[in-house]
Write a structure and sequence with these properties.
The structure holds two protein chains of two kinds. Chain A is mostly helical. Chain A has one domain: Up-down Bundle (Formate dehydrogenase/DMSO reductase fold), CATH 1.20.1630.10. Chain A is built from 13 helices and no strands. Classes of the chains: A mainly alpha, B alpha+beta.
Chain lengths: 342, 269
């Protein structure tokens, strides 16, 4: 497979067609692939979104007097935030040194910003959930609910900057859409979780209406952002529709469509509403797993690093009105690493 | 950023002139010996004489071997390129920017070094590097890379790889001085008929603000496994944060709309 690739440039010479062929060092990736593992990191992305969206639902439920939705959302927010933190710690090469994250605050490091966000968010969400489930210290619970809702959107969105702020082509190039994709996905997941209030004894359509609305808005936002990103970034978007990442993304789109349709048409059926909620949760998770694996695939193939950079150089040369780099693109007759006898 | 305090030492760097590299790998060995970098496999890759394959946690100098079939004036049709790759010690270093613990830092020599007693192995620096230099050491969990022999520099010695290089392909010195020397060398080679000679990473206006370790190459960078136009990812971070802020606001707006819509629906019933 790779042998084919490093022969690429020779083919260009023979055909004299300036196709998007490229040279590499024995087909080896230029980047070192992220060592982040699944399920830790895609789970961390998913749970952070679920938590952030749930905190908004929780605050709304508190303000509009929806106790069943409130309890579910507050529990989901705390569980999501705490598990997201556990996943992050578990993925560390030296988990015992997690607290070194709080040694400094660096706005240039989304992981630093995120660690501080989570450090504020998880205790607030925990207090809110504890108060809602035990009925104790309601005023403190309300304040904690408000605090968690204030930090929640940030918790859902910062992970987009975290993955985009890398040299991984499929993540970096998608940075303008990624935050909208993530908050949309988080809203969809939180709405999906809230829809489970439909099957709670005291639940029902009055309790779940805002969750359904949030899920639909979130699903629309996620799908619009993903669509726009895939169109805008060109060939770098390939891993979002191919291979392992592509399969997850497709599954996510299908589940989101089914879940959104089910939620919109559930009417008074509690079972349909709750089932749609599960589908929407699964959709958000599948999308995150897809984005994670697409990023790994784009880091692992030198094509996604070299071709866009070559295009950039050629455009810059064209803008400067010189043919110097265009000549470099066509190549000087070099084939990196002779395929040999293989 | 650099030279920002009185009596700061000058920025030090590497100029790797690949036109005189003979592929002896003395740099690889000296680096491993001096820095106690562990053995990381003794397999044969089949990639010419290259069995270290690429830079990583346990390979801080990597000699690339490229066999090119092309007619040459000296007879024969094989051109054999060799190049010793290393951490670029970028002016704008993404690994340093994204490190959440402050483990990676800028030394007084303008180099970029990991403090191994701080690193918690979050792995963020690894995909941040546009060159694929830094990596996580298996069984250790922390991130490791070239330190430009920070310990030796502090004692006024040159790094182990430069010391061991028998052809002066690896030259160590003040970066300003190295850049001047490198330009002279390119001019010399071009005049001698090596039209492909070019500098890589020497331009302070490139996407990483210039490399503290730059190269004289005889072919396109990607032939050597180097990115043709690397950009520090944090260049776009201000814009990323703006988008994050807008997306967070959108999410809050969506939640507000969700409850407003429900209230409207209830009133309508």
């Amino acid at each position: 497979m790779t042998a084919q690739r490093w022969r690429g440039k020779r083919r260009v010479e023979q055909n004299m067609v300036p196709r998007a062929e490229f040279t590499s060092y024995y087909g080896k990736p230029i980047l070192n692939k992220p060592v982040w593992a699944s399920p830790d990191i895609p789970g961390y992305l998913f749970l952070g979104g679920l938590a952030g969206g749930s905190s908004l639902l929780a605050a709304g439920a508190q303000l509009t007097g929806r106790p069943v939705l409130g309890r579910i959302a507050k529990t989901g927010a705390f569980a999501g935030g705490a598990l997201s933190m556990v996943a992050l710690i578990h993925d560390l090469g030296r988990p015992a040194r997690f607290l070194n994250m709080l040694r400094v605050f660096k706005v240039t490091s989304p992981m630093s910003v995120g660690s501080w966000l989570l450090a504020g968010y998880v205790p607030a969400a925990g207090t809110a959930a504890w108060s809602a489930l035990t009925g104790r210290l309601p005023r403190l619970g309300a304040a904690a609910t408000a605090g968690a809702a204030l930090l929640g959107p940030g918790v859902a969105a910062y992970t987009a900057a975290l993955i985009s702020d890398t040299a991984v082509p499929a993540w970096h190039d998608g940075y303008p859409e990624m935050p909208f994709l993530f908050t949309g996905s988080g809203a969809m997941a939180a709405g999906g979780l809230g829809l489970l209030a439909a099957v709670a004894p005291a639940g029902g359509p009055a309790e779940t209406a805002p969750a359904r609305n949030l899920a639909l808005l979130g699903a629309a936002m996620e799908s619009a952002a993903l669509e726009r990103m895939e169109h805008r970034i060109g060939m770098v978007a390939e891993p979002y529709s191919e291979g392992r990442g592509g399969r997850y993304v497709k599954a996510g789109k299908l589940l989101a469509a089914l879940g959104a349709a089910g939620a919109a048409l559930s009417g008074r059926s509690r079972t349909v509403a709750a089932t749609s909620g599960v589908a929407l949760l699964a959709a958000s998770a599948a999308t995150r797993w897809g984005i994670f694996h697409a990023g790994l695939a784009s880091a692992d193939d030198p094509k996604y690093t070299v071709v866009p950079q070559r295009q950039r150089l050629a455009e810059r040369a064209a803008a400067a009105g010189t043919g110097a780099v265009a000549g470099a693109v066509a190549g000087t007759g070099a084939v990196a690493g002779d395929p040999g006898t293989s | 950023m650099l030279d920002s305090y009185p009596d700061a030492p000058p920025r030090m760097g590497f100029f790797t002139d690949t036109s005189v590299c003979i592929g002896c790998k003395a740099c690889e060995v000296a680096c491993k010996e001096w820095n106690h970098v562990p053995e990381d496999g003794l397999s044969l890759s089949g990639m010419s004489y290259d069995n270290t394959v690429g830079l990583g946690a346990d390979t801080w100098r990597h000699v690339a071997f490229i066999e090119e079939r092309r007619p040459s004036e000296s007879g024969g049709d094989l051109r054999w390129l060799m190049s010793s790759d290393v951490c670029k010690h970028c002016t704008h270093a993404a690994c340093l920017d994204v490190c959440p613990t402050g483990s990676l830092f800028r030394t007084e020599f303008g180099t970029v070094v990991v403090q191994e007693d701080i690193c918690n192995g979050c792995g963020y620096c690894i995909p941040a590097c546009p060159y694929g230099v830094i990596d996580q050491r298996r069984g250790d969990g922390r991130a490791w890379k070239c330190t430009m022999c920070y310990d030796r520099l502090g004692s006024g010695m040159e790094p182990a790889c430069a010391k061991a290089c028998p052809t002066d392909s690896i030259q160590f010195g003040q970066l300003d001085e190295l850049r001047g020397r490198a330009e002279g060398r390119v001019a010399e080679l071009v005049e001698a008929g090596v039209a492909d000679a070019r500098l890589y990473g020497a331009d302070p206006n490139d996407g990483v603000g210039g490399d503290g370790a730059f190269f004289l190459l005889l072919d396109e960078p990607e032939v050597y496994g180097l990115p043709p136009d690397p950009v520090v990812t944090t260049r776009d971070l201000p814009s990323m944060w703006r988008h994050v802020g807008a997306a967070a606001a959108c999410m809050a707006g969506a939640a507000f709309a969700a409850f407003a819509g429900a209230a409207f629906g209830r009133a309508a019933r």
